[in-house]
Structure formats: structure tokens, C-alpha cells
Design goal:
Blueprint: H1 2-15, E1 18-19, E2 25-26, H2 41-71, H3 91-97, H4 100-131, H5 138-146, H6 153-163, H7 170-177, E3 192-193, E4 206-207, H8 209-236, H9 239-247, H10 252-260, H11 265-280, H12 283-290, H13 301-311, H14 315-342
Antiparallel strand pairs: 1-2, 3-4
Length: 346
């Protein structure tokens, strides 16, 4: 701080009084209009936040911007792109929007986002209500439910590949042992026919069993996180609300539906945003299970981006898919950030 004060005094002494052409002087009144106030809290805090801000801006947002620039070129193979404004175009985006594989990956990504997040929220809420009843060994149950979240996608993918094994996997072994052989199947296969259910309007003739096997495994891993978020929300609701609902004669189901669950809106939004971000990052899980090409039954934008960029050396095309995936992530996070801004939390 002493060096900043010395610099401030030096600037003031150098500024002095300007000499006018008629021999007089110009008197400076008040504070300078352009010199910063070195005693302000903003200037004093600069050394602490400016370096990490610049580093994050360069390595994160700079990389995103550079990726967008590459997506405007024809960068592929071992030939370097030409970084000229006249050569930039949106050809890679047009190619993606006319590619059936791209739309299959978009469909799978949306299904993964919606189904995984919805089921995880419902499962987490039910577990939180169960744990909130004051059961014995509450802390043990809470730890058991939350423990899978501490595992990486690589570990859980290997674990579930064993579970889903068609001949030796524990799921099919249990089903066969209890006489439910007709339910034993190749869980990591492509599709299963829905049979007579296909006669129902809008019901698909085949279900992507591979994608739903992935969703079930992710549900096992992250429902504990939703449980913890909901449990914190339940514990924050005053006991008066429970007692008032019971005095009014509300049943347990009505009390949760009309009184308790509406007060969990903030918990639901925050958990949903985090879970959708986890779903967008499911590349590790799919790559360990199926490699870079899970097939149309489970291909998502992240695996397609990796396959095009690092498998086919279509760098510009892969960058375009990455930018589209980034826009999807923004569409997930932006409403949450806006709601937090409206509440004054940002």
C-alpha cells in the first residue's frame, strides 16, 4: 500500500498547476476526472482478483472463443486452417443440421437430460422424505445413498458393465434364479421391441434399452445428491407448517402435495441444474462402456463431437458440435442464473 500511496503523491505533484498562455495558472478544483482513486476498495482488491480473472478468461473463455473461430473454418486432417475473415462461414453448422447422425445425437442428449433429471429428482425427493421421518441409522443411510456420487464415471461404468453382462451379470443371474428368465436380456444391446404396446398411439415400436441402461446407472449414482439437497430443504421448513396442515385436517399426501413440496422450489431448481450439467458430462461413462461410437441407440453430442474431432480428424466439424453443446449448457444454466439475479443472489 505504501508504494501505491507514493505513486499517487507523485502523480499529484507532476500534475501541479498548468501555466496559462497569459501568464496565469489554471487551478484544479475537486478530484481528478480520470485518475483512479488509489484508496478505493476496488483498486486495493485488484491484486487479489485480477490475476485469476485474467487467467480464467484466457484459458476458459478464450478457449471457447478460439473453438468458435475454428468452427468457422474448414480445418480437417493435417492441413492448417486459413484464418481470414473472408474464408469464415457457417458451413460446419449447416453440415451438422443436415446430418441425421447429429439429430439422433441431439435426441438422445435431450432424452438423457429430461429422463435422467426427472427420475433423479423424484427418487431423491422420496429418499429425502423417508430419511426425514427420523428413522434409526439416519446418518448411515445418508452416507450410503451419497457414497456413489464420490465415484468417478470411469469406476461406475466398469462396475455397471459387469452388472449388465448378459451371461454373468448379477442382474440377469438374479432374474433367472427367481424364474424371470423372460426379463433377462442384453441390457447394453441396442433396442427392444415393445410388442403389443406399439399399438398404443405415439408409443414407440422399439425402446432404446442401451440409453435407458445408462440412465439407470446414472440414476443410481446421483439420486443421493438430490436426496441431500431435498433433505436440506425439508429441514429448513418450520415445524409450524406441518402442525398447521395437520390441524386443518390435511392427510399426509395432501400435506406434502399442497404445503411441503411447493416450498422446495429452490431446492428443485438448484438440484435440476446440477443434474443436467452432470448429464451433459456423461461422456466419460459412455466412452468407457462403448468407446467413441455407442451407436444410434446411445450416441450423444459429446461422444459425436469426440468421434468427429479425434477419430475422423474433422476438427472444424467437431468444434461446431462442441459450440452447439456449449449453447445447450447455457440454455440450461442461464434461466437459473437469471432467477438468482432476480432474487438478488448474484
Amino acid at each position: 500500500m505504501s508504494r501505491l500511496n507514493q505513486l499517487r503523491e507523485r502523480l499529484r505533484s507532476v500534475r501541479g498547476d498548468d501555466v496559462r498562455t497569459d501568464g496565469g495558472t489554471v487551478e484544479h478544483t475537486g478530484e481528478s476526472g480520470f485518475l483512479p482513486d488509489f484508496d478505493s476498495e476496488f483498486v486495493r482488491s485488484l491484486p487479489f482478483w485480477l490475476p485469476p480473472f485474467l487467467l480464467m478468461g484466457f484459458f476458459v473463455y478464450g478457449a471457447i472463443g478460439w473453438n468458435f473461430v475454428i468452427s468457422l473454418t474448414d480445418f480437417s486432417g493435417f492441413s492448417l486452417p486459413t484464418y481470414e475473415l473472408s474464408a469464415f462461414d457457417f458451413e460446419m453448422y449447416r453440415q451438422a443440421f443436415s446430418d441425421p447422425t447429429f439429430w439422433t445425437a441431439v435426441q438422445n442428449t435431450v432424452i438423457l437430460l429430461v429422463v435422467f433429471t426427472s427420475l433423479c429428482l423424484v427418487g431423491g425427493l422420496l429418499l429425502a422424505i423417508l430419511v426425514d421421518q427420523g428413522i434409526r441409522f439416519e446418518n448411515t443411510f445418508r452416507t450410503v445413498y451419497l457414497l456413489p456420487m464420490a465415484l468417478s464415471f470411469v469406476v461406475t461404468a466398469v462396475f455397471w458393465s459387469w452388472m449388465y453382462n448378459n451371461t454373468t451379470g448379477v442382474i440377469n443371474v438374479v432374474l433367472r434364479s427367481v424364474g424371470l428368465d423372460f426379463l433377462a436380456m442384453n441390457w447394453l444391446g441396442g433396442y427392444i421391441d415393445t410388442g403389443v404396446l406399439a399399438t398404443i398411439p405415439y408409443f414407440p415400436s422399439a425402446v432404446k434399452i442401451r440409453l435407458f441402461a445408462v440412465i439407470f446407472a446414472l440414476l443410481w449414482q446421483y439420486s443421493g445428491y438430490a436426496m441431500v439437497v431435498y433433505l436440506a430443504g425439508l429441514r429448513a421448513i418450520p415445524d409450524d407448517h406441518y402442525e398447521a396442515a395437520r390441524i386443518d385436517g390435511a392427510s399426509t399426501l395432501t400435506m406434502y402435495r399442497r404445503v411441503i413440496i411447493p416450498q422446495l422450489r429452490a431446492s428443485t431448481i438448484s438440484a435440476a441444474v446440477v443434474l443436467m450439467v452432470f448429464a451433459l458430462k456423461a461422456f466419460d461413462f459412455l466412452y468407457v462402456l462403448f468407446g467413441s461410437n455407442p451407436g444410434p441407440a446411445a450416441d450423444i453430442l459429446a461422444t459425436m463431437m469426440y468421434r468427429e474431432a479425434f477419430g475422423s480428424n474433422q476438427w472444424a466439424y467437431g468444434s461446431a458440435i462442441a459450440i452447439i453443446l456449449f449453447v445447450m449448457a447455457l440454455a440450461v444454466i442461464a434461466p437459473y442464473l437469471y432467477s438468482e439475479y432476480r432474487r438478488g443472489e448474484l
